[in-house]
Design a protein that fits this description.
single chain; about 325 residues; mainly alpha; 16 helices; globular
Length: about 325
Amino acid sequence: MKQTSTHTLLERHYEPGLWSMEALTLIYMLITTAMTLHYWRGLDNPTAMILTRAAMLAIMSATYGLYRLHPCRALRILRVVPVMLGLVVWYPETYDFCSQLPYLDHHFAQIDQTLFGCQPALEFRQHLKSNLWSEAFNMGYYAYYYMMGATLLFYLLRRYRQADNAGFIFLGSFFLFYLIFDFLPVAGPQYYFRAVGLEAAQTGIFPAVGHYFRTHTEMLTTEPGGIFSQLVQAAQEAGERPTAAFPSSHVGMSTITMMLAWKARNKWLFWLMTPLYALLCCATVYIQAHYLIDSICGLLAAIAFYWLTNQIYTKLPNRQNPKPNPAP
């Protein structure tokens, strides 16, 4: 396959219209702006949320303006950067929205108890306590963003004609997860078990906590481990919230990433990520971020979202027409 050269990236060539990812971001901002106005009095800082959207719109306009000054592939790819970084911005807001409603963790903990006769989020860690297992699972969990970034970058640089389709599937699925999180408040074991106590969780007592997590964001504490354990803990302390447990977007989006890697027909990309994917899926329960039912439903949601977003994309009037990929 012909490599993407610097000349190809910088050669002047105007492609009209928005990336589908840009259009999806604008739609998501519009929906969540309406939600912000609806919940205005219950939100901690709704004005900052509105200003964040104004800033995102300004950044997207700026990157689009740069592209219009010198229309080339490199600057068109640059326009993808703010919409992808926006995922980090929109995630904490799922907590702002869902915390307006009473939390439902008692139902999901009970589902795990009924299906499996225990709490897998507690038992899994107890049965594999060694530092070796801990580091392996945390390494997989930490690889989440790198796997997604590598796959999207591969499409942009090596499968450019399919990148718009892949981006629509990827970002559309992410936003579907976020919208579920906005209206389905589930904090996950690391918050819920801290709130009700480990003894209650181990004996199958799962009280409702109502709006408890609106004012409490304490997680279960774990003993310091190796480098990957520390990296995951630091990331959670910096950006995690009592939100987004069901369905697991870590399982869901990593599954979609693997499906896109397979679709790209690059065996090295797919097979190098496969062991990390397996560790990541296990890690969601091992590090107590999710109930096992969350991870199972994350996998099922990924399949449904991939199919749905791909079907929608094929019906868009201005979609790019991808050409078949050459053999890897």
